[in-house]
Amino acid sequence: MAGRDAARTVESDRHLRLPRAWLGGLLVGLWLVGPAEALSEFTHEPLEPAPDTEEVIERAPLPPPPDFTVPLPDPIRPLFDVEDTRFGEPEIKDLPLPEVFYDPALLPEPVRAMRDALMEVARAGEIEGLRPLIAEGSDATQLSLGPAAEDPVAYLRSISGDPEGHEILAILYEVLAAGFVRLQNGDEEDIYVWPYFYVMPLEELDARQRVELFKLVTAGDYEDMRAYGGYLFYRAGITADGHWTFFIAGH
């Protein structure tokens, strides 16, 4: 028993001696290193202000962009006669509104035949069927307000909301299914235009006519067109001899 007590005493003394030795070494190291410098004792050179290098750059005005607008004739006569008053506002005189027709039997035979052919292609959903109906050359069918496309069928497909051109065919069908008017094409023969909204003041449409209009455009489109001052969606025209003269949108 005495031997075990002596062994514990030795072991206890050994554990006590290790911390003391470690503490002593730490104190000696701190004495050799000396006190640490405070942050306020660090010095630095004052910064020189950056030189003023701002330069005055003269900017010359850019030349105006070139005008790429291609003027095209209006396919039908305007709704209004405008008199030039030189230095004042032009005077606008309303023309009598043309009569609206719905019965295709009232169309001349060449016009009715072209309308039927266009609507048949639209119903079939084959846009290539329009190719033989599209005029070329100096009397080319106008399909846009810009220069004529090299491939008119490809152009119609490109402006459709789907790659097959079904949307533009549906628009063509609905346009030709609407009421129509007969207009004078300058000094030339009559031209038949669909839909009649193209020559009607939109604010004067009655309830029945607005429902007909909403088959083609939305109520939002209608308000935008009223703000602009006229119908801007697609319209089609066929001359009295059966020539498909235009199918365009815009102003």
Detailed description of the structure:
The chain has 251 residues and is α+β, with helices and mostly antiparallel strands. It has a domain of 144 residues. Helices cover 34% and strands 11% of the residues. It is built from six helices and six strands; from the N terminus they run αββαααββααββ. A four-stranded antiparallel beta sheet has the order 3-4-5-6. Helix 2 packs antiparallel against helix 4. It is globular, with a radius of gyration of 44 Å. The relative contact order is 0.11. The N terminus is likely disordered.
Please tell me what the overall shape is.
globular
Order of helices and strands: HEEHHHEEHHEE
Tally of contiguous helical segments: 6
Low-confidence stretches: 1-44, 66-93
Profile the largest sheet: 4 strands, antiparallel
**What's the arrangement of strands in the largest beta sheet?**
3-4-5-6
Portion of residues in beta strands equals: 5-15%
